[in-house]
Amino acid sequence: MKNNFNSINIFHILHFTFLLFLMFTLLIKAQQNELKGMTAGEVINLIKSHTGGSDAWNYNTVDNFKTGNPETIVTGIVTTFTPTMEVLAQAVQNNCNLIISHEPTFYNNTDEVKWLENDKVYKTKLDFINKHNIVIWRFHDHWHNTPGKPDGIMVGMMDTLKWKSYQSADEQTIFNLPEMTVKELALYLKKQLKIKALRVIGDPELKVSKIAFLPGAWGGTAHVKALEKEGVQLLLVGESNEWEGIAYIVDAIGQKRNQAMILLGHVTSEESGMNECAKWLKSFISDLPIKFIPAGEPFWQP
Ligand SMILES: [Zn+2]
């Protein structure tokens, strides 16, 4: 009887000691993690897990690291359209060292830098980035296009333009707006998107309702295809080549077809989408400061 009692006691003591040891180890580990913080690579892996996981990332995408070391401990995240010198300076001021940018850092789609090695603008920008240990990661393809998820750029733009209820159910680029003149629409866009240098092609008094909205730079073929669609009266774009889509709309107008085109500028046609990106990141990253810094429209008018 006595022996039995003793063995239970020893068992309990061992069990309790083990639990205490386990709790202590977990506590130390949690504290170490908290002190260590998340690395840029860990933040990006988290983003990948929220955009389709490894299956959706298994192709040659431009969404990858452009500068810095993925092992860098993140002090704060900035989302932006493109990391201009001003955006970089503001990121440093805000103590944020991970920049999530929609567009390239170094003036070409894949951020090739070999051709820029002796370029003074490139070198000055890179020096600034290196001096402040800034990690830049591009978020373009998957922010636009993740299966089962709406285009994040379009979500942000709809929010700013208040157009969600006009969007066609079958095609997210087609909108059936309340009828207004081209001039009225242009002025609305200018006001909502705070544009200084908006450009319009076509009759300002033409009444339009059905429009195609292709933010950014879809290219001439897509612009022509959008204008070919049944009933489309106006094509709204970020930017377009003057010898492609623009040449086409000029001809269409020359043939007395009642169509028009508005060019918002690439930045202004997409930038709200990176504000949306900051909001989206906050939905699953809670222990890091996350801030949207606009790159801003590069143009002005005299
Ligand atoms: Zn885009």
Write the layout of secondary structure elements.
Blueprint: H1 2-36, H2 40-49, H3 53-56, E1 65-67, E2 77-80, H4 85-93, E3 98-101, H5 120-131, E4 135-138, H6 141-144, H7 152-161, E5 174-181, H8 182-192, E6 199-201, E7 207-214, H9 220-228, E8 234-237, H10 245-254, E9 260-263, H11 266-270, H12 272-282, E10 290-292
Parallel strand pairs: 2-3, 2-10, 3-4, 7-8, 8-9
Antiparallel strand pairs: 1-4, 5-7, 6-9
The structure holds zinc ion.
Residues 102, 140, 144, 153, 216, 270 line the site of zinc ion.
Write a structural description.
The protein is of the alpha/beta class and 302 residues long. It folds into three domains: 36 residues; 130 residues, NIF3 (NGG1p interacting factor 3)-like (Udp-n-acetylmuramoylalanyl-d-glutamate--2,6- Diaminopimelate Ligase, Chain: A, domain 1); 113 residues, Udp-n-acetylmuramoylalanyl-d-glutamate--2,6- Diaminopimelate Ligase, Chain: A, domain 1. Helix content is 43%, strand content 15%. A five-stranded mixed β-sheet has the order 1-4-3-2-10, sandwiched between helices. The protein has a five-stranded mixed β-sheet with strand order 5-7-8-9-6. Helix 9 links the parallel strand 7 and strand 8. Helix 7 crosses helix 12 and helix 9 runs parallel beside helix 10. The longest helix has 35 residues. The radius of gyration is 26 Å and the shape is elongated. 30% of the residues are buried. The mean pLDDT is 92. Bound molecules: zinc ion. Zinc ion binds next to loops.
